[in-house]
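Notes to self after the Tuesday call (sharing in case useful).
The group wants a holo model before anyone commits to mutagenesis around the pocket. I volunteered. Ligand is S-adenosyl-L-homocysteine. Logging inputs and output together so the record is complete.
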Amino acid sequence: MEDTFRHKGLRKKLVQEVRSKGIRNEHVLEALGKVPRHFFMDSGFINFAYKDQAFPIGAGQTISQPYTVAFQTELLQVNPFDKVLEIGTGSGYQAAILLEMGAKVYTIERQKELYLKAQDFLPKIGYKPHFFYGDGYEGQPAYGPYDRILITAAAPDIPGKLMEQLKVGGRLVLPLGDSRTQIMTLVIKESDDKYQKTSHGYFVFVPLLKGTENGL
Ligand code: SAH
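Result:
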């Protein structure tokens, strides 16, 4: 797999497009400019890798639209060395963006096929998050608490166990709503039993499902 001048040029254009749609955080835009998105997509879709669109990644799932990845990452306000828990590894693209921003990344996926693929592939191109196979609703308490938690699938409510694993002062970003449409939501944990919730527009994600795909 190659990252050619053509790919780099297309990526620059994509960054400009995402900027023109309102993303302002230069660290986020820089990360978007660095991660070779075409590496994360099945070969048939490589020509679409630098369009600002979501695409299928197998197992009925999608790699999020670059604008959406940038929007969630901006809202999360990631600092270098932050411990970030991601729910929904999928292709691993969002995890790579978080790593480019200097975070320590812990990522959970409930579909075995996607988990295995990301775990095999990401380190080969230099991205080393901690991978977990399991139900994101449970989080990963052994490695917590986390500075930031990012849910990349649509959740009908704020998962209580994830709030418990968030540090006081930490931020949780999730698309909140039913399967048709969700409101991007930022939750800031103000104390152990108090949080502040704000809404940031409509998005569409695949659903956050309970358990793992074989019911474990
Ligand atoms: N972040 C991904 C996009 C993920 S799409 C990327 O950058 O490519 C959402 C992912 O969440 C899917 O892979 C889906 O299998 C996964 N998912 C859904 N419910 C989950 C759960 N309860 N725990 C962990 N992963 C889940």
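Two things stood out.
The pocket of S-adenosyl-L-homocysteine is lined by residues 61-64, 87-88, 90-91, 93-94, 108-111, 114, 135-137, 152-153, 206, 208-209 (CB under 6 Å).
The domain at 53-203 is CATH 3.40.50.150 (Rossmann fold).
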